[in-house]
Amino acid sequence: xxxxxxxxxxxxxxxxxxxxxxxxxxxxxxxxxxxxxxxxxxxxxxxxxxxxxxxxxxxxxxxxxxxxxxxxxxxxxxxxxxxxxxxxxxxxxxxxxxxxxxxxxxxxxxxxxxxxxxxxxxxxxxxxxxxxxxxxxxxxxxxxxxxxxxxxxxxxxxxxxxxxxxxxxxxxxxxxxxxxxxxxxxxxxxxxxxxxxxxxxxxxxxxxxxxxxxxxxxxxxxxxxxxxxxxxxxxxxxxxxxxxxxxxxxxxxxxxxxxxxxxxxxxxxxxxxxxxxxxxxxxxxxxxxxxx
Length: 292
Hints:
The chain is α/β, with parallel strands linked by helices. The chain is built from 12 helices and 8 strands.
């Protein structure tokens, strides 16, 4: 039965990538990292503009940005990697590797090897926290290339109901799947079929997510470094859905205080997956922020 669910999820992913490629002139690529590969999608653009790098969140993949990119009228190049260890950026089955700061190290190394002259980093949820870690590494490097940051419903602050949130993010039943989707999307999100929910339950309970969850709980204070965001010096757009209960408006207001050169945008009638629910509005915010 596991084989069937894996096959169905594979077909689901391929359909999303096929749509992405047809709508946005996207190509699939791999970058050899001496022992593993980073899989990424690339939208070509004018070389004189900074490259936008989009970092996806937990339980997501590179194709999760398909709606946002479709509405993002940006003339420069766009790169969208699968997080190391997820999607097609495979890692060995070693629990130690599945830690957010290690993901940040790997992606920062990838960015350097891509030899980007200037870039804008945009991360959603867990990808926002990984983006913050990448920004600090870049600021402390010999040649900083990240000019601006966009944090969409970013992680980084431990949730006050952490145990409840952990149960939501690691579903154990079909009811839990429906509950999680309700936290990600607003009330008008259609209820998926029983087969889809069983497929998601099988995928989201894979060993990759288990390793990441265990390591994150064990090193919570190091991973969710919160106030360390004060060290971010570049102009930063922070965006949040008004009804987001996973990363709340109050959390984003705290980020606004920590990052001095930041701007906070709150989108009404929107939950955690704001880049999908309100793709056009988020794209417009990004374009206004970048001024391109």
